[in-house]
Amino acid sequence: MGKTVVIKRAIASDVRFKLNDGAGSDAIHTTPIYAYAVCKLQTDQNMEGIGLAFTLGMGNNLVCQAIEHLTKHVENRDINELMANFGSTYKAMAEDPNYRWLGPHKGIVHLALASVVNACFDLWAKSRGLPLWKLLIDLPAQDIVNTLDLSYLEEVLTRDEAVAILSNNAITKHERTGILNTGYPGYDTSVGWFNYTDEKIKINVSKAIDAGFTAMKLKVGSKDIKRDIRRAKLVRETAGDKATIMLDANQQWHLSKAIEICNELKAINPYWVEEPTHPDDIAAHVTLAKEIAPIKLALGEHVPNKIIFKNFLQSGCMSFNQVDAVRVGGISEFITISLLSKKFGIPVVPHVGDMGQIHQHLVLFNHISIGHKALFLEHIPHLRQYFKYPARIIDGRYQIPQQPGMSADFV
Amino acid sequence: MGKTVVIKRAIASDVRFKLNDGAGSDAIHTTPIYAYAVCKLQTDQNMEGIGLAFTLGMGNNLVCQAIEHLTKHVENRDINELMANFGSTYKAMAEDPNYRWLGPHKGIVHLALASVVNACFDLWAKSRGLPLWKLLIDLPAQDIVNTLDLSYLEEVLTRDEAVAILSNNAITKHERTGILNTGYPGYDTSVGWFNYTDEKIKINVSKAIDAGFTAMKLKVGSKDIKRDIRRAKLVRETAGDKATIMLDANQQWHLSKAIEICNELKAINPYWVEEPTHPDDIAAHVTLAKEIAPIKLALGEHVPNKIIFKNFLQSGCMSFNQVDAVRVGGISEFITISLLSKKFGIPVVPHVGDMGQIHQHLVLFNHISIGHKALFLEHIPHLRQYFKYPARIIDGRYQIPQQPGMSADFV
User: Fold this and answer.
1) For position A309, which CATH number holds?
2) Distance (Å) from the C-alpha of residue A408 to the closest C-alpha of chain B?
3) Residue B150 counted as domain residue
4) Chain B residues close to A280, C-beta within 8 Å
5) Is the same domain home to B105 and B186?
6) H-helix or E-strand containing B258?
7) Residue B283 and residue A314: Cβ atoms within 8 Å?
8) DSSP assignment of B119-131, as one string?
9) pLDDT for A259-294, tens place per residue?
10) pLDDT for A196
11) How many contacts does A have with B, using Cβ atoms within 8 A?
């Protein structure tokens, strides 16, 4: 057990960062702002928990107000006592009567939940003096599952099955801890933002390769199909045949257009196509996945909760699970969804609304404790100057964070 | 064309009503407050548009703040010019860059959209001096479809098909306008709120029958299965074999529990079971519908948008579509979903977060212009004292509203 650390006061703050020169732009968001609805848990000790939910600026203040409503569930609690049975507190927050009408389990109230939950996990790790990944990989299976709410998943993932996945992987854990020496690959999302010129993309691809990246992403979803095709070919030609190239359409295509364009994009052999159409449209993704095989779909950036992830996994259309711990209900729901994804044999490759700060820990946990091979993790460097301990990438590989907590502290 | 009426100023207001003695209680919401995030569109004329989104109190202020963000899309517009091509404004609001991250198309931002959209329709009808139903049933098919955004529905409902549904029904419209003389049945939701005693339910059922209702609803979803069964039998015994009885579980059952209980509830021959499990869980509803046939499922109260309705309809599990115009993106998306539902042959029986004030108009439009037979409409009387023109029910039947607008004005 860790020492007694009591949450005395919760503060929400609205933190926004302007991006420059087309950075962060995609087919929907032409002038994005990156923003965090931050939950800060002050304690009776010299430490505080920092939680994040990610937004694109507008309405970030509404998420902050929702955070202030939810934190009453954790105030005056000792963090270790709280986390020993966190699943019940998670459920109480997610099911907060009357408030859940505003979701349920989606939208602003769920983003707020993410921030509060993440702050609790951060504080828990800090109270033990451990980086989050280290805390999580050393916890007994039962203790991990005690932090989860498995409601409405019973027909595909019982509590016993969740414990069994973790217990069975614990037996072979030593086979996978080598990652703590080697780190694991990042992939570069910043070569091809939507508003970048062709020339800039070409330069960025070369820079990425020089920096050790072997995988990178291009934003597509233009109204002009030819622009998408031209730029995809440009990235392939510049990066070479061996590079791993992903394409992200940011939901811009309706079904028949998605089929048409994806079939044209086969020419550049993409590793995946991401968010081709509306993120709620499971049936369209099922049709699309069949029509464009062998192209695979990466989905989940805008999927808000475990129930919809369950349905996507059951449907068979999702080849890469891009759950984001600053979109779903924080680390607790992220782990739940990772266990579900393991059950269905689908790899987890998170979207990083947190710029990878938290997810760099969760990839290690998923790799070591759940047996989700760490394929690679998205890397976006635009906010690194603002984090106290920014993720470190050397030769295209994420290094292992060593500071206590989950690396979400700001400078 | 109507006269020129320019929207000069939009105001959001947070209106909450306390309910007494267990009214409105269900398995989740034991002490509900009924609240509206109201969008008021002031004009250069002596009239204003009133829009509503419904919540259960907590966080209603957040919806109001989101309304204030969206109304910039309609300010300084002439209402008739705006509504002539409202689909494009609807889309601009639903896709507002950066803001859509907070949904997309769900949660607080989408509730806010509902309120703004509804205010526009209300003002449109008032500008013509017509009750909303009269405005809508007399509009040419093209004009109706111009108010809709059919994005992401192309594979099941093209613009041409939407126009065709309305045009074909216009030909036989005269066969269905008799409803304007007879009204149509209401069903009584207030006989069996969750916290009511068995004795009170028994009295309420008798009162409902005396008042001319032949259909009524009981709240179930208790942790104690026997309580649900006992009360369902009580309603059946009191109401008699001919009464139409619906059961509403308010999402309380996981799949296997839902199967078990619904099979026990067959004994009382329910007309439908409503929201048996998590409202996002299409796959679970598909399994459930098969397992409990011939019991039918009524779904949609918490379904936020046309995409998820499309998936529910495609899945075949939904027997009654309970779309609510104060949950989805207002009357525009309600009509879109009604057209979709017509395409799939599924009746629309709205949930009435608006206490039926707006939906009494939409049922008439659906019946006359889309050919959705008006089965009945939910009736909840608890707020009637607060509305300027409360819905009138005589002998269990909704009467036809005659005042200009959509009956959402408060006293």
Assistant:
1) 3.20.20.120
2) 21
3) no
4) 105-106, 305, 307-308, 311
5) no
6) helix B255-265
7) yes
8) HHHHHHHHHTTSB
9) 999 999 999 999 999 999 999 999 999 999 999 999
10) 95
11) 169
